[in-house]
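INFO  loader      accepted 1 record
INFO  loader      residues=126
INFO  predictor   begin
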Amino acid sequence: MTVLELRNALAALLTASLGTYTLGNGSTTPAISVRAVGERRPVDTTVTGLEVVIVRDPELTPVEVYKEPGAFREWTVYLIDWSDATSLEAPAAAVVAAYPGTLVRAASVPKGVGPQNQMELTIRFQ
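INFO  predictor   done
INFO  writer      dumping C-alpha cells
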C-alpha cells in the first residue's frame, strides 16, 4: 500500500470523525495530512477537532519468507484531538478493525507543547 492509498483509505474510514483544517485563504478541508517527520502544517493553517497525520515514509522491517527476501512496511499515524474533549478510542478502534494487528499507544506530549490527547498507531503491511 502506498502512502496515498493509505491516506485515502483512512480519510474514507474516519470521515465522520475528522476535524477541519482552515487554510490561510479561508477555505476548509478535512484534517488529514501526510507529512515528513518534524514537518509542520503550512503557515496560517489552523485545525479544529480530530487531526490525522500520516508519517510520509514507512519503516521497513526486513523478513525472509521461504528464503525470499521481503519487507513489512510500517506506517506511523497520529490521531490528535485539538479540542482536548474528544475520545480517540472510537477512531482508533475503527482503524484496528480495518487493519488487524495495528499497534495503538497513547502519545506522551509535554504540557505546553501541543494537545495532550494523542494516539500513535502503527499499521503494518507486507
